[in-house]
Specification:
mainly alpha, 0% strand, 472 residues
Length: 472
């Protein structure tokens, strides 16, 4: 049984059980995703973890952080009925992130990080409500508390790993995260949805760099706990493919939210979702050519438009239209599976691809139906299942490309991705999103330029002078 078929089988048999947001169906991921018990401590953690899986798991946790923050912004500003359920899911993510560091720094440290991150979320919610209500006094107080909490998070991380997480770098990284998130919320509140969508993409790119900083710092501090890393090209492909398919389901969900409520951001969200299909097609062009990439884009575009037709029919209660749209949607999924199989018969067997595509549709349909029914707790759990499956499918696609073009994926390992038992040669905490950053000075410089290049235009001036004194 080849790699893809084995992964697809795992998807079918286990994905329903794997709803914890940090999980990736590997021993490493179980450590990150499962809430640690009181017996878990830095000294009790044993064994080795795949460096790539660990890095991916940390990325997933922080991706969830910004994804559920955006979903809360959308729901809270529109006062949608799923606001409370979304807030609970967002707060649970802070527990997941705290639990992720317990095997290395102990239970107390993990609980401390969770508490700090929950304050980060609750203070952001207060800031959002104040901005929505136009209460400038509350807005100023909430802003001060939010940025002070960000400083506390930076100080905590620095205390846990001073060498890999220098205080000034962590402070800049946290401030940049807040600045960007504030910009996103403000543009959404103002109704500038095209800018709002672009703002989220910036938040997302930055958080991946922060996640890589966290994982690289842990791997440098505990090198004996991690296995050898793949080549730079292999890591880059896997992470790029995961990001593209994560975008696919995130923007699909945001489209479901907007379309179900007929929100004014629906058109901008739709355009961003369709752009993702172009991005996915472009991703395979270096391997299979322009025509193949354009074909995949066309098939995926039909996949999105078919889902939109199905959602519209379901909202209208038109059973005949629902059936017709459903038939067309599942037929398109089979066409996508057949196309992928034709490009890589050995890496992507037809039956495995058909099963994976059907599972993706089944899960997305369940998510949409629960949303329309108003069962928001189930709807959120459905999305977690969709995410788990799509990430495994992304890995399977990457594995297929690596196996088909092995000469493209040989070479050195990525900086900060340690080999078992080896001393680590890198001396900085990379905070940008390139995988091969060389030094702490360049990281700090890059963050400073980016921070200055992404101006925040709040509802009103929120203590800008005080912020400069506190952080510059």
């Amino acid at each position: 049984m080849n790699v893809l078929h084995r992964r697809a089988t795992i998807c079918i048999t286990l994905a329903v059980l794997m709803i914890l947001i940090g999980g990736l169906a590997t021993p490493a991921t179980t450590t990150l995703a499962t809430s640690a018990t009181s017996s878990t401590s830095a000294t009790a953690a044993t064994g080795t973890t795949s460096a790539l899986d660990f890095r991916n798991a940390m990325r997933q946790l922080w991706e969830d952080h910004v994804t559920w923050t955006r979903m809360y912004i959308v729901s809270a500003l529109a006062n949608q009925p799923d606001k409370d359920a979304t807030a609970q899911r967002l707060l649970r993510n802070q527990e997941d992130i705290g639990n992720a560091i317990k095997p290395f720094y102990g239970d107390a440290a993990g609980d401390k990080l969770t508490a700090l991150l929950k304050d980060h979320i609750l203070e952001a919610a207060t800031l959002l409500e104040a901005a929505k209500g136009g209460d400038n006094k509350v807005l100023q107080a909430a802003s001060d508390a939010w940025y002070a909490n960000a400083n506390d998070i930076a100080a905590f991380l620095n205390s846990a790993n001073p060498k890999a997480w220098p205080l000034d770098v962590m402070q800049m990284g946290m401030k940049m995260h807040l600045d960007m998130t504030l910009q996103e919320a403000v543009t959404h509140l103002k109704g500038d949805y095209t800018a709002d969508v672009a703002d989220y993409d910036k938040v997302y790119e930055h958080i991946l760099g922060l996640a890589d900083t966290v994982s690289a710092g842990i791997m440098s501090q505990f090198p004996d706990r991690f296995t050898a890393a793949p080549s730079d090209a292999d890591v880059s492909l896997h992470q790029a493919m995961r990001k593209l398919w994560e975008d696919h389901i995130t923007w699909t969900r945001l489209f479901i939210l907007s379309a179900a409520a007929d929100s004014p951001d629906k058109d901008a969200t739709t355009q961003r979702l369709l752009q993702n299909q172009v991005d996915l097609g472009n991703a395979i062009k270096p391997y299979y050519g322009d025509a193949a990439g354009d074909k995949l884009t066309a098939l995926l575009r039909d996949h999105i438009l078919g889902a939109a037709s199905l959602l519209t029919a379901a909202k209208a209660g038109d059973n005949a239209a629902v059936q017709a749209a459903s038939d067309a949607w599942y037929a398109n999924a089979n066409d996508i599976a057949a196309f992928l199989n034709s490009a890589n018969p050995n890496g992507w067997p037809l039956d495995a691809m058909q099963m994976s595509m059907k599972m993706h549709l089944d899960q997305t349909l369940t998510e949409a139906v629960d949303r329309l029914k108003g069962d928001y707790a189930a709807d959120i759990a459905d999305y977690d299942k969709v995410q788990e499956h799509i990430l495994m499918m992304a890995d399977a696609l990457s594995d297929g490309i690596v196996s088909q073009f092995p000469d493209n994926f040989s070479g050195a390992t990525v900086a900060g991705m340690p080999r078992t038992g080896g001393a680590q040669g890198y001396n900085s905490a990379p905070l940008a999103w390139l995988l091969t950053l060389g030094s702490l000075a360049l990281v700090a410089m890059g963050l400073w330029v980016l921070r200055r290049g992404v101006p925040v235009e709040p509802v009103r001036e929120i203590g800008e002078e005080a912020d400069r004194k506190r952080f510059d």
